[in-house]
Amino acid sequence: MATDYKAMMADIGKQTAVLKKDIPDTMSNFYAMAGAADKAGALDPKTKEYVALGIAIAIRCEPCIAFHTRSLVKMGVTREEFEEVLGTAIYMGGGPAVMYAAHAMEAFEQLAI
Known about the structure:
Elements lengths: L4 H18 L1 H15 L6 H15 L2 H13 L4 H33 L2
Helix pairs in contact: 1-2, 3-4, 3-5, 4-5
Protein backbone atom coordinates (compact mmCIF):
# COMPACT_ATOMS: atom_id res chain seq x y z
CA MET A 1 0.00 0.00 0.00
CA ALA A 2 1.25 3.44 -0.81
CA THR A 3 -0.97 5.77 1.21
CA ASP A 4 0.81 8.41 3.27
CA TYR A 5 -1.68 8.86 6.10
CA LYS A 6 0.10 11.83 7.65
CA ALA A 7 -0.01 13.68 4.32
CA MET A 8 -3.63 12.67 3.82
CA MET A 9 -4.61 14.11 7.20
CA ALA A 10 -2.67 17.32 6.49
CA ASP A 11 -4.47 17.73 3.16
CA ILE A 12 -7.87 17.09 4.71
CA GLY A 13 -7.00 19.54 7.50
CA LYS A 14 -6.32 22.26 4.95
CA GLN A 15 -9.65 21.70 3.27
CA THR A 16 -11.62 21.49 6.51
CA ALA A 17 -10.04 24.84 7.45
CA VAL A 18 -11.58 26.25 4.27
CA LEU A 19 -14.93 24.75 5.22
CA LYS A 20 -14.68 26.21 8.75
CA LYS A 21 -14.19 29.63 7.16
CA ASP A 22 -16.80 29.30 4.42
CA ILE A 23 -19.55 27.44 6.30
CA PRO A 24 -18.78 28.20 9.96
CA ASP A 25 -22.21 27.32 11.37
CA THR A 26 -22.22 23.87 9.78
CA MET A 27 -18.66 23.10 10.81
CA SER A 28 -18.92 24.44 14.35
CA ASN A 29 -22.08 22.40 14.87
CA PHE A 30 -20.42 19.32 13.43
CA TYR A 31 -17.47 19.70 15.82
CA ALA A 32 -19.85 20.36 18.73
CA MET A 33 -21.69 17.14 17.89
CA ALA A 34 -18.38 15.26 17.67
CA GLY A 35 -17.31 16.64 21.04
CA ALA A 36 -20.59 15.64 22.65
CA ALA A 37 -20.47 12.16 21.15
CA ASP A 38 -16.85 11.65 22.25
CA LYS A 39 -17.36 12.85 25.81
CA ALA A 40 -17.00 10.22 28.54
CA GLY A 41 -20.28 8.79 29.73
CA ALA A 42 -21.36 5.18 30.05
CA LEU A 43 -18.58 4.49 27.54
CA ASP A 44 -15.09 5.91 27.82
CA PRO A 45 -13.64 7.93 24.90
CA LYS A 46 -11.29 5.11 23.85
CA THR A 47 -14.20 2.69 23.45
CA LYS A 48 -16.03 5.30 21.40
CA GLU A 49 -12.98 5.64 19.14
CA TYR A 50 -12.98 1.86 18.66
CA VAL A 51 -16.59 2.10 17.50
CA ALA A 52 -15.75 4.99 15.18
CA LEU A 53 -12.83 3.06 13.69
CA GLY A 54 -15.04 0.03 13.09
CA ILE A 55 -17.60 2.21 11.33
CA ALA A 56 -14.87 3.91 9.28
CA ILE A 57 -13.70 0.49 8.10
CA ALA A 58 -17.27 -0.62 7.35
CA ILE A 59 -18.07 2.45 5.27
CA ARG A 60 -14.61 2.41 3.65
CA CYS A 61 -13.55 5.92 4.61
CA GLU A 62 -9.74 6.05 4.51
CA PRO A 63 -9.46 9.58 5.95
CA CYS A 64 -11.79 8.54 8.79
CA ILE A 65 -9.61 5.49 9.40
CA ALA A 66 -6.55 7.74 9.60
CA PHE A 67 -8.06 10.26 12.00
CA HIS A 68 -9.56 7.65 14.34
CA THR A 69 -6.34 5.64 14.27
CA ARG A 70 -4.40 8.77 15.21
CA SER A 71 -6.81 9.41 18.09
CA LEU A 72 -6.40 5.86 19.33
CA VAL A 73 -2.60 6.08 19.10
CA LYS A 74 -2.71 9.30 21.15
CA MET A 75 -4.89 7.47 23.69
CA GLY A 76 -2.23 4.78 24.04
CA VAL A 77 -3.89 1.92 22.16
CA THR A 78 -1.71 -1.16 21.99
CA ARG A 79 -1.16 -3.04 18.76
CA GLU A 80 -3.04 -5.99 20.27
CA GLU A 81 -6.07 -3.84 21.17
CA PHE A 82 -6.02 -2.23 17.73
CA GLU A 83 -5.87 -5.59 15.97
CA GLU A 84 -8.78 -6.94 18.04
CA VAL A 85 -10.88 -3.99 16.89
CA LEU A 86 -9.87 -4.80 13.31
CA GLY A 87 -10.88 -8.42 13.90
CA THR A 88 -14.35 -7.35 15.00
CA ALA A 89 -14.68 -5.03 11.99
CA ILE A 90 -13.64 -7.90 9.70
CA TYR A 91 -16.17 -10.21 11.34
CA MET A 92 -18.94 -7.70 10.73
CA GLY A 93 -17.85 -6.55 7.27
CA GLY A 94 -16.41 -9.60 5.55
CA GLY A 95 -13.98 -9.36 2.64
CA PRO A 96 -14.24 -5.60 2.04
CA ALA A 97 -13.54 -5.01 5.72
CA VAL A 98 -10.37 -7.10 5.42
CA MET A 99 -9.12 -4.70 2.75
CA TYR A 100 -9.86 -1.60 4.83
CA ALA A 101 -8.56 -3.23 8.01
CA ALA A 102 -5.29 -3.59 6.10
CA HIS A 103 -5.39 0.15 5.42
CA ALA A 104 -6.04 0.75 9.12
CA MET A 105 -3.06 -1.44 10.03
CA GLU A 106 -0.84 0.59 7.73
CA ALA A 107 -2.17 3.82 9.25
CA PHE A 108 -1.40 2.44 12.72
CA GLU A 109 2.13 1.51 11.70
CA GLN A 110 2.74 4.99 10.26
CA LEU A 111 1.18 6.90 13.15
CA ALA A 112 2.45 4.82 16.07
CA ILE A 113 6.02 5.92 15.37
